TrEMBL record:
A Pfam family matched in the record: oligo_HPY
Source species taxonomy: Bacteria, Bacillati, Bacillota, Bacilli, Bacillales
Single GO molecular function: ATP binding
Protein name as catalogued: Dipeptide ABC transporter ATP-binding protein
Domain of life: Bacteria
Domain ABC transporter: 6-256
SMART domains reported in the protein's UniProt record: AAA
Keyword Chaperone belongs to the record: no
Keywords: ATP-binding, Nucleotide-binding, Transport
Family assignment from sequence similarity: Belongs to the ABC transporter superfamily.
GO BP, sorted A to Z: peptide transport; transmembrane transport
Annotated InterPro entries: AAA+_ATPase, ABC_transp_ATP-bind, ABC_transporter-like_ATP-bd, ABC_transporter-like_CS, Oligopep_ABC_C, P-loop_NTPase
Length: 323
């Protein structure tokens, strides 16, 4: 058994842009453009970046909820990119997703019992009585009560619905959970309750998380390591502690400038981002961040920086740093 539960190598997802009279391909959106990372067993890897940088596409294409354009995904030693559709369906019980908006993904006409039972039925697990018992158990596990089984999604608050979304993801005892902005739609006061629940579940059930957020302060406490994405690429990846105390990439510094520091004495270089995120259909040459970077040089405009380890597993893609 390897230490890594998930290995993502050179993952790409390109969407063709069609147009013209003949509806031919006139361009391509590079939603995810050569992303590599690993997640260790029991670890939480945070993935952050502004909206549109490719976080959801990364999460969904590694689960093959959308088909990657290129790259390899190893899950528990199995190359899932090579599995047939049928084999992938079986594999997916071990790798589940929690969505940002559970309401959109919960069938409004089904009660909670039916919603939670469904994955078990799809995978042919248990008798009807066993499945119903598992639903009762799972409701307790996520901090709801057995009487909630009879209710419908609209009868719950946002926080409760996300608990149901988490319960559904856990019904098949998965190893990996891809949590795609699971608390972004919730009130701040409810966010920490759901984050605490996820941490308790991770400890009790030995789960591994890929935790996606657009907000660095949300991933900080839950993540062991954090990857920062910009325009379809990971530009920096290191431990949570390192990322917050010693950020290297100018983009990471800019994101952190916007997050209040708990330590008022902490000296932090303030980087204010200029302009908007460029379009992934027409990304800048060289380092794609050069159009907004205060340190950009000729080299940055011309050459794409390699994503490399500059020491102790601190990866950065930036010409300012040479290993
Ligand atoms: P994030 O989750 O970081 O906000 P996404 O992964 O949703 O970003 O999107 C990354 C980029 O890919 C965006 O520019 C988005 O517009 C584009 N994109 C996402 N899905 C599609 C699609 N089905 N067709 C075309 N472009 C898409
Ligand atoms: Mg998203």
């Amino acid at each position: 058994m390897t230490e890594e539960l998930l290995v993502v190598k050179n993952l790409k997802k390109y969407y063709p842009i069609t147009g013209g009279i003949l509806g031919g391909e006139v361009g391509v959106v590079k939603a995810v453009d050569d992303v590599s990372f690993t997640v260790k067993r029991g670890e939480t890897l945070g993935l952050v970046g502004e909206s549109g940088c490719g976080k959801s596409t990364t999460g969904r294409s590694l689960l093959r909820l959308i088909e990657p354009t290129a790259g390899e995904v190893l899950f528990d030693g199995v190359n899932v990119t090579a599995l047939s559709a049928d084999e992938m369906r079986k594999m997916r019980r071990h790798m589940q997703i929690v969505f940002q908006d559970p309401f959109a993904s919960l069938n409004p006409r089904h009660n909670i019992e039916k919603i939670l039972e469904e994955p078990l039925i799809v995978h042919g697990i248990g008798t009807s009585a066993e499945r119903k018992r598992k639903v009762q158990e799972m409701l307790e596990v996520v901090g709801l009560s057995s009487y909630h089984a009879r209710r419908y999604p609209h009868q719950f608050s946002g926080g409760q619905r996300q608990r149901i979304g988490i319960a559904r993801a856990l019904m098949l005892n998965p190893k990996l959970i891809v949590a795609d902005e699971p608390v972004s739609a919730l009130d701040v006061s409810i966010q920490s309750q759901v984050l605490n629940l996820m941490q308790d579940l991770q400890r009790d059930l030995g789960l591994t998380y890929l935790f996606i957020a657009h907000d660095l302060s949300v991933v900080r406490h839950i993540s062991d390591r954090v990857g920062v994405m910009y325009l379809g690429r990971i530009v920096e990846l290191t431990t949570s502690t390192q990322l917050y105390s010693n950020p290297l990439h100018p983009y990471t510094k800019a994101l952190l400038s916007a997050v209040p520091t708990p330590d008022p004495d902490a000296v932090r270089e303030r980087v204010i981002l200029q302009g908007d995120v460029p379009s992934p259909a027409n990304p800048p040459s060289g380092c794609t961040f050069h159009t907004r970077c205060p340190h950009a040089t000729e080299e940055c405009r011309a050459v794409r920086p390699a994503f490399q380890d500059v020491g102790d597993g601190h990866f950065v893609a930036c010409h300012l740093y040479k290993p």
